[in-house]
Design brief:
single chain; Maltoporin, Chain A; disordered N terminus; mainly beta; 22-stranded antiparallel barrel; 5-stranded mixed β-sheet; 685 residues; 38 strands; 58% strand; globular
Amino acid sequence: MDCHLPRFLLVSVAIVAHTAVAVSEARGQEAPGGLVDAPLEQLLDIEVTSAAKRPQRVADSAAAIFVLTRDDIRRSGATTIPEALRLVPGLYVARADSNVWIVNARGFSSRFSAKLLVLLDGRAVYSPLFSGVFWDVQDTVLEDVDRIEVIRGPGAALWGVNAVNGVINIVTRRSQDTQGALASGGAGTEELGFGAVRYGFRLGDSTLRAYAQGFNRDQARLAALPERGAGDDWQIGRFGARLDADLATRDTLTIISDGYRGTVREMAPVPSLELPYFLVRGFEQPLNGVNVTARWQHSSSETSNFQLQAYYDRTARDDLREIFELNTFDIDFQHRFQWQFGRFGSNDVVWGAGQRFHNVSSRPGGSLTLVLPSEDMRQSSAFVSNDTTVVPTKLHAIVGSKFEQASISGFEVEPSVRLLFTPNPDTSIWAAVSRAVRIPSLIERYGLFDVGVSPPGSATPLPTLVQFSGNAGFGSEKLQAYEIGYRARVSQKVAGDVALFYNRYADLRDAAATSASLGVAPTPHLVLPIVLNNNLAGTTYGVETLIDVDLQKHWKLRGSYSFLRVDTRQERTGGTIGLSSSLQGLAPPDFDEPRHQAYLRLAIDAGPLEIDAVPRVTSALHRLSVPGYAELDARVAWRPSRRLELALMGRSLAHSTHQEFVNTNAGPVPVLIQREGTFKATVRF
């Protein structure tokens, strides 16, 4: 298939462009301004905060950063945050089933992509239970999202442990920018029904918005039996509010809160000690959560300000393996100031400290037991970053580090050195050397669950139960990263961005079989524990590219290509080589990623019509035996005014079904993602 991918991209764009020409020839009134009308220099001037924990232009960021704007998200036709993230260059996004998403950067992608830190309005949604993100509950009214800042590469010097391969920071709009009412809703072949209402109003010197939303999504199809549903449909309802208050001339207070309740269904293989040695069962998983974030910001002057933030987050899931409740308390202080040091120029300093507590309660679910430590998880941290202007407005040196003490892993230091050269406002060249750490999860330390059963054979007349066993001595995974990047507006109509990276990993997660024991119930069998260790090492390297082109006044084209190579090796003895060949299949690789990814995005304004098309290609996942695929997403919207929008969206239009990812035996059964069409109406008043 790979040889036909470029042809597929070109043909798809040509079809959409031909249609758009016919429509635009009859151009009447001008469409409301948005992505297509934004000049390229404006896209480079987008303000971000994730790369330096202070406001700066994208062009002034010494990191591989990309911003999904509010208009990007709207015109993507996405109904979920992970779906919108498909437009981020170099980011790997795939669906394992209807409600399980894989989102990761620069390698080691799995259901819980452990090396990617995700924040929503400053609140970390990375779970210490599984080391990853439950994407099925990360949601809000998409019209209220201001931007999504994505850093590919380590961000640990500012954001701490687990920000190894990247950081995703989802930033919602201020309530003063969302006054009045909004209602949106629709239905489709897979999105059976969804809707949201939001209302913003003033309370004296403060502004407030409140919202409620919900959806019902259909199931995918079984890969083994495509005519049958995969039993993975899901429904979630959500509500929330945001308050922004001006306490004084230089003080602001923000309070954000939301809650959700729903049901997620999955089908998963359950090991059995009787023929056929596993059963496929459907699980219904109720889930709910609530969170509240409070942030006080004080500005002493244009060059000095501080912020105090605290949040509480409660998550409860009746998972297919474990029933648990996780409570997180976090408080964080940050201060920024500038100072002068002789002829070395100005220094922009950001420093801060924080404390986080995790309280977990659990009881056995389907097959997992979690033997928790007697005390809560604690995490103390401090960081400092100094941006020195070595040559005025030309060369910057950014040096900093995060220092953390976690009860589950001990003391960690995560330094970073970055250089940024900006010969002119439209060009930047940057390089970085960083260290990052991924600390163990509770499951990796204290979990116990059944992986599968090997039938009796010549080696033993008894069935063998393969059982994952947590290792209290399992340690942190470590990364040494080297990056270099270039971004520029090379003409009035063309802008580009390229980043290259080389990563060296040590103490990566591996597993080894230990001595088997005899079990007697419910039938005589052997029990073979699989214990985690840190015996694996690896390297990754690759390139991520992006180009933006103004084809015409109301036409824009964006293209992206990324290449990734991952190599792993045994760093120490005692890895999976200890498994017999008959048991290797019960412990398949728990990560994989495509070597090549590419997409083209064509956005056209034709009067009140908006036309968007995104042909995208992904190469094969060889370790998981998932073939490469090419797909087409498209959207046609009618916007007669800023108050009304009617849109038809199509996703995965090239094939009736296709496979994107396969979970390991610890997850749901393999499924096929279906072609889908959706209608959405949005009204503002």
